[in-house]
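Dear colleagues,

As part of the handover before I leave the project, I'm documenting each prediction I ran so the next person doesn't have to rerun anything. This entry is a single chain, and its sequence is reproduced below.
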Amino acid sequence: MVKNSFISIIFQEQEENKENRGSVEFQVVSFTNKIRRLTSHLELHKKDYLSQRGLRKILGKRQRLLAYLSKKNRARYKELIGQLDIRERKTR
């Protein structure tokens, strides 16, 4: 659960700057937090198909935001995926 505590620290830093709630980084952090919560929920409730669908939708949203960020500012993208400890997206 070290990852979750680290995420909450990043999330609190982002929350302190309330003007930045629409930023791509803030949205990715909040989606990552939701993804981790849903993943732990689905480990207990394997047949909760509605939550599985919600998880897939959130994963797609985060993937699109990360693709946008990698096109616009590669340095911020690299820093963010390093902080959140998520994999870099595959390129075709």
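The chain has a mean pLDDT of 86. The CA atoms of residues 28 and 62 lie 6 Å apart.

All the best with the project,
I.
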